[in-house]
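task queued by scheduler; priority normal; single chain, no ligands, no partner chains; default sampling; output format set to structure tokens
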Amino acid sequence: MNNYFYLNENKTIKDAFFIFNKAFGCILCVEDKKKRLVGILTEGDLRRAILKGFSIKEKLKEIISKKYTFIYIEELQNKKFVKSNFNAKNLNVSINFIPIINNNNNVIRVLPTTKVIEILEEKSKFKGTSLKPNILIVGGAGYIGTILVKKLLSKNYRVTILDKLIYDKSVISFFKKNKNLKFIKGDICDLNVQINCIRDIDVVVFLAEIVGDPACNAKPEDALKTNYLAVSSFSHLCSLLNISKFIYTSSCSVYGLDKDNNLLNEQSPLNPVSHYARIKIMSEKALLSIKNQNFCPTVLRLGTVFGPSIRDRFDLVVNTFAKFAYFNKKIDIHGGNQWRPNICVEDVADGIIAVIKSNKKKVSNEIFNLSSENLNYRIKDIAKIVRKKFKPININYSNSRQDIRNYRVSCKKFELATNFKAKKTIEYAYDLFLKKFRKKLIKNPNLKKYSNIATIKLFSDKNV
């Protein structure tokens, strides 16, 4: 959670008030021209300065106290305070936040006093040597979430998963022994859960939703509650708490039907043809309507995701073809000329990490297509790849129940902003599926846990 901001000591009280007006409950780190900490200020300090007769045009260096609490990072790690201006006996004297600095007096981060106490009492370990943020993955036990969590933990990020585990409760055991992982079982639609899960969080990745047109059409009210209302309320809470990076996964299905087969970019007209896509557009607008200098959401419009995961799905076109090709030796195609952008689940995770690592200015308040331009395929093109990998199989074409969605997308904007380009192919994913199938890691792909719509129906019926 971003609970502190910076200003140069030659800035004015008026400048500081402007920051506090936009950022609730933070502290201000006052620096010299070499970015060295020279003092801290709260909104209360500014008001007291005004009461003492200082003008709002007064420079901050004239009102800061030279006696402020700070802790050197090495001394916090060793729990031995020599140079730090810190006294554990005085922690309860109206000190809410403590700057952690290096030997050059540059601020590494600011910790709540309660967190410092936990560290001293060895209830918590200090991760201050790393500037990597604490990341909340809403829906972290899902198809994309489990791969993202795995990758983040491998890079030594601290990760909190919030998930209600309606698909597969066993996936959490995959991460159970990792010390950097915290798991919260809960529903993001619950306001109490929202408040409890956001503590000490720096970045939010919002993946929790009822995914796909069939699932949303089956439970439209639940889709509205999870895919829109929860996103809207939670983003407002994150805005209030100054969580600047909020990554929301939307969908390229917002483009709906493009009869001209153009390569669509983020400025192209939207033409949703489903309840799912219309809710996605509503959520995008809700997020970007509350953007400010301290809450800077990033919207990622995903192509059709494919590939194996820790929590597998077989209700996505590429994965569905793999299931039927291997277990049934045939696939059925309705239509086949429809264009779709595709992206491997591993590339989705890497793309999200690219946003987390990117300079905030490059990704803030922006919408990006996240897919692979090389994988803009017609459905029948994917079928040809299936035939090569899973031969011999039969392909049955039919014009009944044809999906009218048809769109191709450009990903140039995302590549320019983050220097990330999706690379995993459908052939790569099929090789991994074949290994899983042959090792009998998936014995029955028709189980409800592998299908969003089947699970959503079952879960909703149980909770009527």
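post-processing summary
- The chain has two domains: 4-120, 134-462.
- Residues 4-120 form a domain with the CBS-domain fold (CATH 3.10.580.10).
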